[in-house]
């Protein structure tokens, strides 16, 4: 056993484990544990110290702020007291020194006001800065040592100087004093109407500017016209506006090389038309024909094309009867039915009786938006025998284009070759009413839109009879819709009388066919004759 203990001691000694080292290790571990336990306490101590420091700084700032604010509060209090004393002084100070008071209530004497320090009246010649300095000196003299104003009793009533006194002194006054004087004495302020006794004004009173020395009998606004005179001189009346407008129209007409009388006449007609449309002073017949619209709007829009663009030449206008029914039968061409419109203008403008041509159109015309409404208003109606017979029986002049869409949409290579005239329905309508048939030949309409192709697929898609291709359409887009300015000739042939045949002749198919072929041959021969006479397509 002794041997074993010695070996253990020898081993520990060899390993360097001595009692001194063990003691040192124990002390070190004890210090570390103490340090760990003391760490939270130190942190808490530091936080408490920081809080106390912040509190001390805040208290110091509050104290310094209070110390700094004390003089400011004292200065503000002194300024407020000074301002209140100044207002009290202004209320209690009369306008002029030595003036007597006026009792506020009739029959009750006001207490006399003794002499007091007043703000001197500063002449208006002095500048604003000088006036302010002078008044500041007087206010300083009126205050006490501690900066407060001496309290003064408010008088029962204020002294009101007369207008002449104010004018002589040159002192400034306010409209409030004038208004209070008016309330006290019952007199109205200058420049205002007098009020009944006991009435007061609730409107706010603003200070007035300095008054100059003006005689009592002189008006306050000398040289200023009355409101009525100003209105008359500034606002022009209706007559002046019309005169100016007429002068401007005349000047524009002279600049454009037109007759001033013609321009004025057209302008007056247009204004009269607008008045009638607004008031509803116009009539429409059973077919929708609006004569006022046709005469004053529809035809004037077409006249520039008729006179200046196509330069239409009319022949045989005397073959159209002046009164009674008549049926104008013409060839159809031009891709767009411009020939029917030009014929309508020619009949109205060139005929001595200025008759309206009631055109008979296809169903497609009246099914088209806007176009159908304008066609109705201009006198057109459906190309049906009942409508045509009613119009002819009423003594109207009707127009029909028997070729229909076959003539309008034919290619340019077949120009001026008449297509089939249908089954002769227009002839039977003329026979039943006894109206004469007037053949009409139109040269020049074939060249306004020369058809060089037809887009049949597009036409079927749109539901149209044809979809033309011209040298300008659709290559140039909307510009391709402008017609070429060809020279037109419209000739009305000798009428074919039907009255001697009687209404029963309309039931004879052979007679109807013979009359239809006769009218067609007359128009075709006239077209050939006019083409031979024409010098050029455009001249």
Descriptive notes:
The structure is a single chain. This protein has 539 residues and is an alpha/beta fold. It has helices at 2-15, 19-92, 128-142, 163-169, 175-185, 227-234, 238-256, 260-279, 291-309, 338-350, 363-367, 371-377, 385-393, 405-408, 425-433, 456-462, 509-533; strands spanning 313-315, 326-330, 357-361, 381-382, 397-400, 437-443, 453-454, 468-469, 489-492. Among the domains are: 238-281, no CATH class; 287-448 and 483-533, Glycerol-3-phosphate (1)-acyltransferase, CATH 3.40.1130. The protein is built from 17 helices and nine strands. The protein has a seven-stranded mixed sheet, with helices on both faces. 20% of the residues are buried. The model is unreliable at 1-16, 95-120, 171-225 and 227-234 (pLDDT under 50).
